[in-house]
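Dear H.,

Thanks for agreeing to be a second pair of eyes. The structure we're designing against is below in token form, covering all 565 positions.
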């Protein structure tokens, strides 16, 4: 994606579409069989929603199946699954019960992930085996009353003792998943102030111990079987050896964990979308109106086609990204944020459309639709709200072109020293004057979709460059522009994933055998075409200022200030 912001198409990263093979594939298939059996026989999503908890024996069985140590390497007692395999299992669990998926996800997508990614060998040996078996459960404690999206402004403090052996932790965290029963918390706290004025955060492994207290379970709209509580730290002593990574580098640790964790959420959304599609397809065939099944009506077909296409795009984007992680591509921060935003919005749309198809029964608590709708809603909020992640996608994507432009303008002031850079920039300009970069590996049957994508990659790069030239650093405050840039980026990435996956399917099974891949890709591409055109047009013409002014002038009013009568 960072390449696309420069107008480039890094085909070698996205072709061929990543696939699990050999022993890993066999292991995942075996795992999925036992997970499905367990979910069908033991996990009653409706009862969990009613009772607001997952029964202990149900969790114990998940532990014995290895579901608490999916990604922990075998040497520490886990199953050692890669990112794709892990996501596939999480997809299955979320497709059955969101509370269970969130409990498992909070434990290992984020709760223990900092130890896994950044922990020392000693920390891994000490903590991972008990976390892998589920004997101990983990939680991720970042959010505070005054630090949600603005994660860097947390106030929980950790003071190093005079003898340097331990820290003393004071403060509180809110909305912590698994808070009620977790034994091990990854906690982010502010440590000694540093000279540059920037907040310095440090990540700690904190055991449930004296001074650590959790509040009452929160009442929630959905995912009611998961535990969400406040966590209080009152002079909690944490050994200095429990710092994860280096002191003062905690913000990077938090971001690294979230970059990784967001894919578990996206995979969960895939699982829920697939279950909803199953429900919707059953319903449209069995429910009759005007002497035919409702599936025969055009407006229902439109919904089903859209649901299939978006789910396909989400699944493709998610597993393209996990494939990149498994292939050790270092930076996947943009892609994982895209999958989180796209996944949660795709699910929200799919669940709403499924409920609409189910109509009357969709609204009744006797059926699963309303529970799934309630459960799905949180995904737009947690692991980074979609609003802040759109800003992140746009600003992080634009950082590369921004740096290039500032380097070029510096080089123009010192043309001799900067000759290499200027020559490179000029060569890129000449290349882009000949037209957009092209895909060479997309199957010809999808050429129309590929060309549309290529054109929009070029539009994105051109717009980003123009915007940066015009507004410079002020872009950091321009959220309307950021949203448009992010929305273009999301469509471009998802469509790239579809083209890569569909091409692979055609190469394997021929155009007839791969008809679903082709049709879902085409439907999704048509949706993209409309959205992209709207966003690109909005780069030039929009009512951003009017909207800002309208909202700002109203902030003094006590609500809606007009009356008809
Ligand atoms: S956990 C809580 C979730 N909270 C968040 O996600 C917080 C969101 N906020 C942020 O991400 C950051 O604060 C933002 C940056 C992005 C707003 N990767 O000056 P900066 C670098 C790598 O922009 P800020 C929860 O909800 C950046 O380059 N690096 O920072 C769990 C810069 O580096 P440098 C990054 O303005 C719920 C530096 O940091 C990233 O303060 C349970 C500073 O950047 C990044 N992403 O704000 C879930 N971002 O200094 C259970 C920034 O070197 C899950 N940087 O230039 C279960 C799921 C499964 C179930 C599903 C069911 C369906």
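And this is the sequence the design step returned. I haven't edited it by hand at all.
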């Amino acid at each position: 994606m960072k390449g696309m912001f420069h107008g480039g198409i890094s085909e070698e990263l996205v072709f061929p579409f990543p696939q699990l093979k050999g022993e890993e594939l066999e292991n995942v298939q075996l795992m999925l069989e036992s997970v499905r059996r367990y979910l069908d026989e033991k996990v009653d999503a409706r009862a969990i929603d009613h009772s607001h908890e997952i029964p202990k024996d149900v969790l114990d069985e998940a532990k014995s199946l290895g579901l608490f140590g999916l990604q922990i390497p075998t040497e520490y007692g886990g199953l050692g699954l890669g990112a794709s395999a892990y996501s596939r299992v999480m997809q299955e669990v979320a497709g059955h019960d969101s509370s269970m998926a969130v409990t498992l996800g909070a434990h290992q997508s984020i709760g223990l992930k900092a130890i896994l990614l950044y922990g020392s060998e000693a920390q891994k040996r000490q903590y991972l085996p008990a976390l892998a078996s589920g004997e101990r459960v983990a939680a991720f404690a970042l959010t505070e009353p005054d630090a949600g999206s603005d994660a860097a402004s947390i106030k929980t403090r950790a003071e190093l003792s005079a003898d340097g052996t331990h820290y003393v932790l004071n403060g509180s965290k809110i909305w912590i998943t698994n808070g009620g029963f977790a034994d091990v918390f990854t906690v982010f706290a502010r440590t000694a102030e540093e000279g540059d004025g920037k907040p310095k955060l440090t990540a700690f492994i904190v055991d449930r111990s004296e001074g650590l207290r959790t509040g009452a379970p929160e009442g929630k709209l959905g995912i009611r079987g998961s535990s969400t509580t406040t966590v209080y730290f009152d002079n909690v002593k944490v050994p200095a050896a429990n710092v994860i990574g280096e002191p003062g580098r905690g913000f990077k640790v938090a971001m690294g964990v979230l970059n990784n964790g967001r894919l578990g959420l996206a995979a969960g959304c895939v699982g829920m979308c697939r279950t909803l599609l199953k429900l919707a397809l059953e319903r449209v065939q069995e429910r009759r109106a005007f002497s035919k099944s409702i599936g025969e009506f055009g407006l229902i077909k439109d919904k089903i086609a859209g649901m299939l296409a978006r789910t396909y795009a989400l699944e493709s984007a998610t597993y393209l990204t996990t494939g990149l992680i498994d292939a050790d591509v270092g930076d996947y921060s943009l892609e994982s944020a895209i999958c989180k935003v796209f996944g949660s919005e795709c699910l929200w749309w799919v669940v709403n459309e499924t409920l609409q198809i189910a109509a009357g029964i969709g609204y009744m608590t006797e059926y699963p639709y309303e529970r799934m709708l309630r459960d799905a809603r949180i995904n737009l909020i947690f692991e980074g709200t979609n609003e802040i992640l759109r800003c992140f996608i746009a600003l992080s994507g634009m950082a590369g072109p921004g740096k290039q432009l500032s380097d070029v303008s510096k080089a123009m002031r010192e043309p001799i020293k900067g000759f290499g850079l200027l020559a490179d920039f000029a060569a890129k300009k000449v290349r882009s004057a000949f037209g957009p970069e092209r895909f060479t590996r997309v199957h010809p049957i999808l050429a129309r979709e590929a060309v549309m994508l290529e054109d929009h990659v070029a539009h994105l790069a051109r717009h980003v460059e123009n915007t940066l030239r015009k507004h410079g650093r002020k872009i950091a405050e321009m959220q309307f522009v950021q949203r448009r840039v992010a929305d273009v980026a999301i469509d471009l990435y998802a469509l790239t994933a579809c083209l890569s996956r569909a091409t692979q399917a055609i190469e394997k099974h021929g155009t007839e055998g791969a008809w679903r891949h082709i049709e879902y890709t085409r439907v999704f591409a048509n949706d993209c075409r409309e959205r992209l055109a709207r966003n690109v047009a909005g780069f030039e013409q929009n009512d951003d200022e009017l909207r800002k002014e309208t909202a700002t002038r109203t902030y003094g009013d006590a609500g809606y200030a007009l009356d008809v009568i």
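Two observations from my side: The first strand starts at residue 138 and ends at 141. Residues 90, 94, 98, 101-102, 105-106, 109-110, 140, 142-143, 149-152, 177, 251, 255, 258-259, 264-265, 268-269, 272, 333, 379, 382-384, 388, 392 surround tetradecanoyl-COA (CB under 6 Å).

Warmly,
E.
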